[in-house]
Design brief:
Length: 147
Amino acid sequence: MKSDEYYMKLALQEAEKAFNIEEVPIGAIVVMQDKIIAKGHNQVELLNDCTAHAEILALTTAFQHLGSKYLPDATLYVTVEPCLMCSGALYWSKIGRIVFGAYDEKNSYRKSTGANNPFHPKTDIVGGVLEDDCSILMKTFFQNLRG
C-alpha cells in the first residue's frame, strides 16, 4: 500500500495543472484499493463555473467510474483543506477518508462550521500532509497574481 505522501504528490501534480492554466492551484485525486479512480484540478475560470473545484470534479469522475453515488471505501487526497461547498459534497458522498495538504484559515469549512465536523461521521480526516509543498504552490500563485 502506498503512503499518503505518495498520493499527495500526485494531487500536487493536478494542482500544478491548475497553476499552469492560471487557476487557483488545487488538485485532488480519489484512491480506492490502492488505485487512482479519479483526478481533478480547479477549473473555475476555464468552465466559468464557481462549483468547478478540484474536489467536486474528482468526486464526479469517481461516481461515474464506479456507477455509485457513495464512496465509503475511497480516500480523497486534496492539496488544500476543503471549503464548505466541497465539504457538503464530501458529506453526501460518504467518503471513507479525506487527506489534505495545506490548511486554509480563510476559506475552509472550519471558518463556517467552527468546531462542528461537516463530514460524514464515519469519514476519517488527516490534515497537513506535505503541507509546506501545498502551501508554497498557493502562495506562489497569489504572489504572481498580485504582480
